[in-house]
From TrEMBL:
One of its GO terms (cellular component) is cytoplasm. It catalyses: phosphoenolpyruvate + UDP-N-acetyl-alpha-D-glucosamine = UDP-N-acetyl-3-O-(1-carboxyvinyl)-alpha-D-glucosamine + phosphate. Cell wall formation. Adds enolpyruvyl to UDP-N-acetylglucosamine. Belongs to the EPSP synthase family. MurA subfamily. It comes from the Bacteria. SUPFAM superfamilies: EPT/RTPC-like (SSF55205). UDP-N-acetyl-alpha-D-glucosamine binds at residues 91, 120-124, 306, 328. Phosphoenolpyruvate binds at residues 22-23. GO terms for biological process: cell division; cell wall organization; peptidoglycan biosynthetic process; regulation of cell shape; UDP-N-acetylgalactosamine biosynthetic process. Pathway: Cell wall biogenesis; peptidoglycan biosynthesis. The lineage of its organism: Bacteria, Pseudomonadati, Verrucomicrobiota, Methylacidimicrobium. This is UDP-N-acetylglucosamine 1-carboxyvinyltransferase.
Length: 419
């Protein structure tokens, strides 16, 4: 497995172009299964998770081409079953369940894998599909869903930690081909859900948001092919913004989805980071002193759980006591033990990280446990004295397109070491 070697202490300066959104691309790719016609997607990032999804589409029978950020999918004939060996590699693979059920009347999908960041059940997905008239069974690690014809229904997708993004995606895709109208209360409001809805509408679906958390989907007989450009990745942009802050540097981010980053940018500004945003161009500049952080994750438009680890790394370099609470995934703090190996002063109290910042972290060998924890360790390595070696960087390749090359281009001393 590849490693990163980062020699910290360099100031960063320059411009980084933000890639297309991973969390938009995956469900949109799944949605191409809803039509027999050709679909063309642009600004699709070249990530291992995207490659996994393309493998799943090919296994299901679709013709797939991927070149220079554009994907062409033509799913003239599809089968309704995905094997464990494909689906286990990422959680987002579960979003083929809704399209397969709607298209084939039957779907057999292995329970999904992905990052190990605590229990992330799919019960809300299944409850939503059952409300549309599907019969659901769990057998030998597979979800088996069957329906002679889906029928629109009224439902709520509210869970104990808020609404479900992939569950909303699954239900929305299935409801597009259901008979009648589906009303989803407490639907996820994330920009990636809205991006999927735009793609579905370009295919001929009738989806509209009525108020902040209510979706109305009027079923149609069939969908047609379409062309779509994926939105920029707000988490990648946020991660590079924190890279500027943690190294007390200045970076310009091109094609940043500023309107989707309000809570992240507000958190940076509260810490004393200078942020200037205009027309997709984001300038971030930080100098000492910065102020401790008081953050709590929430569903969109709240502070994103996918930025929690990166801000923990930043807090570790800010004198004073920071408090970062994660109510979405309470167990998503495995990066704390690795940051402590680098000299961070941090304690974990249930779902709250209490961090007393230090002037400088120390390079150390550390191990990535999940996608966003990997990003946090890269950020810490950029600030730390000496060399930080990060193992298992395949996690970061799941969600960041060429992060090492992008950071090198703005002055970071980061090297990928082959296995």
């Amino acid at each position: 497995m590849d490693k990163f070697a980062i020699r910290g202490g360099n100031r960063l300066h320059g411009t980084i172009s933000v890639s297309g959104s991973k969390n938009s691309s995956l469900p949109i790719l799944a949605a191409t299964l809803l039509t027999r016609e050709r679909c063309v997607l642009h600004r699709v990032p070249d990530l291992t998770d995207v490659r996994y999804m393309l493998d799943i589409l090919r296994y299901l029978g679709a013709d797939v081409e991927f070149s220079q950020g554009s994907v062409v999918v033509e799913a003239r004939k599809v089968v309704g079953e995905t094997p464990y060996d494909l689906v286990r590699r990422m959680r987002a693979s579960v979003c083929v369940l809704g399209p397969l059920l709607a298209r084939c009347g039957r779907a057999k999908v292995s329970l999904p894998g992905g990052c190990v960041i605590g229990d992330r059940p799919i019960d809300l997905h299944l409850r939503g599909l059952e409300a549309l008239g599907s019969r659901i069974a769990l057998s030998k690690g597979y979800v088996i869903a069957e329906a002679s014809g889906l029928v629109g229904a009224r439902m709520s997708l509210q869970g104990p930690h808020g609404s479900t993004v992939l569950g909303t995606d699954n239900v929305m895709m299935a409801a597009c081909l259901a008979r009648g109208t589906t009303i989803v209360e407490n639907a996820a409001s994330e920009p990636e859900v809205a991006d999927l809805a735009r793609f579905l509408c370009s295919m001929g679906a009738k989806v509209r948001r009525a108020g902040g958390s209510r979706l109305e989907i009027e079923g149609v007989d069939e969908l047609h092919g379409a062309e779509h450009t994926v939105i920029s990745d707000r988490i990648e942009a946020g991660t590079f913004a924190v890279a500027a802050a943690i190294t007390r540097s200045e970076l310009v981010l091109e094609e940043a989805p500023i309107e989707h980053m309000r809570s992240t940018l507000s958190a940076l500004q509260d810490a004393g980071v200078f942020v200037e945003a205009a027309e997709g161009r984001l300038r971030v500049r930080a100098t000492d002193p910065l102020h401790p952080l008081q953050l709590r994750t929430g569903t969109y438009p709240g502070f994103p759980t996918d930025m929690q680890a990166q801000f923990c790394a930043l807090a570790a370099t800010i004198p004073g006591r920071s408090r970062i609470e994660d109510d979405i995934f309470p167990n998503r703090f495995m990066h704390i033990s690795e940051l402590k190996r680098m000299g961070a002063h941090a304690d974990l109290l249930a779902n709250v990280a209490v961090i007393d910042g230090v002037d400088r972290l120390s390079g150390a060998p550390v191990m990535a446990s999940d996608l966003r924890a990997s990003a946090a360790l890269v950020l810490a390595g950029l600030q730390a004295e000496n060399t930080t070696t990060i193992s298992r960087v395949y996690h970061i390749d799941r969600g960041y397109e060429r992060i090492d090359a992008k950071l090198r281009a703005v002055g970071a001393d980061i090297e990928r070491l082959p296995k």
